[in-house]
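pasting for ref
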Amino acid sequence: MTFALPAPAKLNLFLHITGRRSDGYHELQTLFQFLDYGDDLQFEPTTEPGEIRLEPALPSVPSENNLIVRAARLLQEESDRLLAGVRITLNKRLPMGGGLGGGSSDAATALLGLNRLWALGLSIDRLAALGLKLGADVPVFVRGFAAFAEGVGEILTPVDPPEDWFVVLKPDCEINTGLIFSQEGLTRDTPRIKIAPAFEGDASRYRNDCEDIVCTLYPEVRKSLDWLSQFGPARLTGTGACIFGRFPTESKALEVWASKPSGINGFVTRGVNRSPLHTKLTELE
């Protein structure tokens, strides 16, 4: 019964802030696309009923606060029976505070993986609803398709953007998302747009409304953004710190990657419109 599942990264190909709600949350419009790169979670049953063991522990994140453990606890609460214990081994590749959705993706993979391990039979709709309790980005990972998102990011419309190649850079800083959304100078009134089921149009007219604030507060992001912009449009994902440039071929992306200054971390990968998590689950059926 031991098996492993991917927890892929995402990019916000654009991020518009269209308003602020009375509860303090921000209304967004964004376009999510998955990357063929991310974390991996291995699931292994244990003999201790109800046990949730996560290995290794993440620095500065108590186990019970980890989204993986919280996802497992939610599923235990959903069940009317005592569930088998589980050891979850996390192979962490995605940086924390990078805007790639690593924690949300890990949580989604935990929900789908444990739904399979424990034979709970919960629907994708129910798992997505549980995921929303953990974070606004979790449902898109649960549902597993590239999506135009509205609301706080939970209202999803499937889209089919080009599956291009990306150079993703991770500046040497960790962004405080709460700090970014609390800034008075943050754009909060971008006009709402409509979008067809397939993503169409000139992507250069879209932007990330968090980018200017992030670059002001974190000069390392500005430095990486300026360098990558030499090769074409580059943009912040989420609230950062990662930035990305889009390229039509793997060879072009690798050529740019090879020329990066020393000391800049990141990776080259392809955008995909079906989550690698769902592809792997299909293979396991």
